[in-house]
Each structure stands twice: as C-alpha cells, then as structure tokens.
Amino acid sequence: MGLRRYPPLPLRDVIQILEALGFFCCRKPVGSHAPYLRIAGDGRTRAIVTVDLAIDEFGEKLIKAMISQSGFTREQFYGATKTTSKKAQVKPYTA
C-alpha cells in the first residue's frame, strides 16, 4: 500500500502549519470553530481558514478544504513544518 497524497493530521499539526504560514487566530472561537487569518504584504489581500477544534484528526476532505481556503498549494501546506513534510514526503517550504 502506497503513501497517501493527503495524510491525516492531528489538530496540533494543523495549527502549527497555519501559524508557520503566517496565520493567527483572529477572534474568539465561535462554538468549536476558530477562524485563522492571514493578511498579505499589500494589506488588502487576506485568507481565512476555519479550523474545527473539536476534531482530533483531520481527514482528506477537511485538509483539502483548509488548503483551498489558505491559498497555498499542497506542497506548501504540508511543507510548512518538518513533521508534516515528512508525513507527506514534500520538501520543507520557506517563504
């Protein structure tokens, strides 16, 4: 059985990835969902990724949605931390 293209990630890793990519929790979580915001250098462009804090491990469907919301590629997303770059076998991402 080969490697999965989108290996599952625990909540801890997802938050570490988002923070490594420049996201921060912009307000108090609503229920179990926390919005993570990233503002680009021009000050006008932004991305919001919604993270469900009640989920222990994120599967392929939710990871794909977070990657899409973030505006980064799969390689950039998984490569944001050393731990996740090894899981997905991608090169570490440097901004």
What is the residue-averaged pLDDT? Answer: 89
Strand percentage lies at 15-25%
Q: Return residue spans where pLDDT drops below 50 for at least 5 consecutive residues.
A: none
Mind describing the biggest β-sheet? 3 strands, antiparallel
Number of helices: 4
Query: Roughly how many Å is the radius of gyration?
Result: 13 Å
Number of strands: 5
- Quickly give the structural class: alpha+beta
Q: Assign a percent range to the helix content.
A: 25-40%
Order of strands in the sheet with most strands: 2-3-4
Distance between the termini: 33 Å
How does this model look, in words?
By secondary structure, this protein is α+β, with helices and mostly antiparallel strands. The protein is built from 4 helices and 5 strands. It has helices at residues 11-20, 60-70, 74-78, 82-88, and strands spanning 9-10, 24-25, 33-39, 46-52, 57-58. The strands form 2 sheets. A 3-stranded antiparallel beta sheet has the order 2-3-4. A hairpin with a 6-residue loop joins β3 and β4. The radius of gyration is 13 Å and the shape is globular. The termini are far apart. The mean pLDDT is 89.
